[in-house]
Amino acid sequence: MKTVSSPLAKGFLADSQKLLAEEHLPHVVKCLQQLEEDEIWWRPNEASNSAGNLVLHLCGNIRQWIISNLGQTADVRDRDSEFAERGPIPRKVMIERLEQTVREACGVLGRLPEATLLRKFTIQGLHVTGFEAIAHVVEHFAYHTGQIVFITKLKHGKDLKFTRLPRVKKAIAKTAADN
Questions:
Q1: Structural contact between residues 127 and 136, judged by C-beta atoms closer than 8 angstroms
Q2: If pLDDT is split at 50, 70 and 90, which confidence band does 175 have?
Q3: Terminus-to-terminus CA distance in the chain, angstroms?
Q4: How far is the C-alpha of 98 from the C-alpha of 54, rounded, in Å?
Q5: Record: fold of 7-178
Q6: Is 99 helix (H, G, I), strand (E, B) or coil?
Q7: Per-domain residue ranges for the chain?
Q8: Cβ contact 151:52 at 8 Å
Q9: Quick check: bond before 88 cis, omega within 30?
């Protein structure tokens, strides 16, 4: 197995691991820790998912795309069950499951041969390179992290301190109030 040698490939793999494990995962965990057990399974309507469903979906997606396909293990994903679940699965179990999945995926990325980045895979009927598969997982995790953050803000009405929100100037606030 030839290791990763190009700086671009090394950087991409390292950045992907960092985004998954050090950026998105901690945000989801912090949200799950702030939500009450029943709030984890709350959904605003049947066209929307709960934070719990999104966590199960992230685990399934990461496992299918990176651990199973790039890591060459059996793909046992049942995508429909990720969305059908109505809980309750305890918060602790959800966090442990997501953390373990991200650890396994980062392990695969950490030992991935460089040639795998250009190799073709068929995942969910899509024909993608290893590079595209990894980019998809990172983007997908970010997308659903945003949804989980929104659910948490919606339920608790407070800034989670993940970013610095701009201060609203009094003149702008006054103009808006006058209209």
A1: no
A2: low
A3: 66
A4: 11
A5: Four Helix Bundle (Hemerythrin (Met), subunit A) (1.20.120)
A6: helix
A7: 7-178
A8: no
A9: yes
> Which residue in 142, 149, 117 sits closest to 12, CA to CA?
117
Looking at residue 170, what is its pLDDT?
A: 61
**Do the beta carbons of residue 55 and residue 148 sit within 8 Å?**
yes
pLDDT by residue (tens digit) across 128-139?
A: 999 999 999 999
Alpha helices in 111-129 (DSSP H): none
SS3 88: coil
Q: Are 94 and 32 in contact (CB under 8 A)?
A: yes
Which pairs from 118-126 meet CB under 8 Å and 24+ separation?
121/69, 121/70, 123/64, 123/65, 123/69, 124/64
Q: What is the pLDDT of residues 20-54, one digit of tens each?
A: 999 999 999 999 999 999 999 999 999 999 999 99
Residue 38: what pLDDT?
A: 95
Structure tokens at 135: 């980019």
**SS3 label, residue 165:** coil
In a 10 Å sphere around its CB, with 0-12 CB exposed, 13-18 middle and 19+ buried, how is residue 119 labelled?
middle
